[in-house]
Amino acid sequence: FIKSSLIIFSAKINFSNIMILNKTALITGINGMDGSHLADFLLKKGYKVYGMERRSSSPNRRNTSHLEDKITFLNGDLTDQNSLLRCLQKSNPDEVYNLASQSFVGQSWNIPEQTSDVTGLGVLRMLEAIREYTKATGRTTDYKMAKRPIKFYQASSSEMFGRMVENPAKETTPFYPRSPYGVAKLYGHWITKNYRESYGMFACSGILFNHESERRGIEFVTRKISDGVAKIKLGLEPHITLGNLDAERDWGYAPDYVEAMWLMLQQETPDDYVIATNNKYSIRDFLSIAFNHAGINDWEKYVKQDPRFMRPAEVDVLRGDYSKAENEMGWVPKTSFENLVKTMVDNDIKLLQHA
User: Fold this and answer.
1) What angle (nearest 5°) sits at the alpha carbon of residue 26, between those of residues 25 and 28?
2) What is the Cα–Cα distance from 162 to 160, expressed in whole angstroms?
């Protein structure tokens, strides 16, 4: 009996199957790919979910239309700290997931100042808002002493590694960003770590490598490919125009990755984790699988390259090592690269057929 009890208590708890009741989460960037998938995940866990969106005459809720009667939308902006404080006051969250940013890497060269303000300084504003809100409610920011600490998740990025000095990259790999977006993300990453060490905040950063889903924005190369393949398959377009076809990325499936975000905030102590698949594939690999799945084998004649889509400073390869996440949280990717590509192509074909 004693031996079997020790085995039970020493086993790693599988948090993913645990139902969480009476917890509240605030998600910035709720209408994005990750935000909508995270909301789905947390609702299944029994959370009350608040989603922050920028004020607009016509909010873009394409990814969250199915959630409009399930979550509460709040107006807020990472460039306005007072609006962030109001979102905290209205939601009174247990967990804050900061997923909002100017997240299109290619566009960050055209709007570097805005990218820095939103993607970089926006993290500082949210951390400061949490600190001010915590003080105003008579609590401490030190999670070890607080009865109900606000736990913070920052969406860091593999683009911070940029010109990889170690392959695959892990948490201790030196950073070398190669875009205004990567530099801004690096500021957000370090300021999160600084607030954790300075104020005792339960603040984590997930260094997520490329992850996609059928909800990805059409401006991103993966969705541009799946949408283009669907249009070619249905006779709606003659070709796809892309930039560099040789760039290699570590691609995973977004619903798998939002589980990792949640797991980070369920740990006893805050830390940073690389979330990846340990594999890399090129744009050509993505094209080959996508076209073959649509029944088109000679994909090269349907793809054109345009210098306009080339980056000023290219990141040739990004690949991550998720062993720390597996060892400490029990997280592993569940969806293969091939199934990810097929899911996106099937979804875009279905959307176009319905349209």
Assistant:
1) 145
2) 5
Place of tokens 């690999």: 285
Residue 7: count of CB within 10 angstroms of its CB = 9
CB distance 130 to 201 below 8 Å: yes
**pLDDT tens across 21-44, in order?**
689 999 999 999 999 999 999 999
**Active site residue: 153, 181, 253, 322, which one?**
181
* Token pair listed for 315: 């990141």
- For residue 63, name the pLDDT band (cuts at 50, 70, 90): very high
Strands (E), 136-210: 151-157, 203-208
DSSP state letter for 17:
G
* 181 classed as catalytic: yes
Cα separation values, 337 from 211, 226, 285, 324, 342, Å: 10, 13, 10, 21, 9
Integer Cα distance of 294 and 345 in angstroms: 8
159 is known as an active-site residue: yes
Give the containing element (helix H, strand E) for 16.
Answer: none
Which of these is catalytic: 159, 212, 214, 259? Answer: 159
Q: What's the predicted TM-score (pTM) here?
A: 0.91
Six token digits for residue 231: 């249009």
What is the bridge-based pairing of β-strands 95-98 and 24-28? parallel
CA R_g for the chain: 21
Q: Among this protein's residues, is 195 annotated catalytic?
A: no
Give Cβ neighbours of residue 109 (< 8 Å, ≥ 6 apart).
179, 180, 311, 312
Reduced to 3 states (helix: H, G, I; strand: E, B; else coil), residue 124 is helix
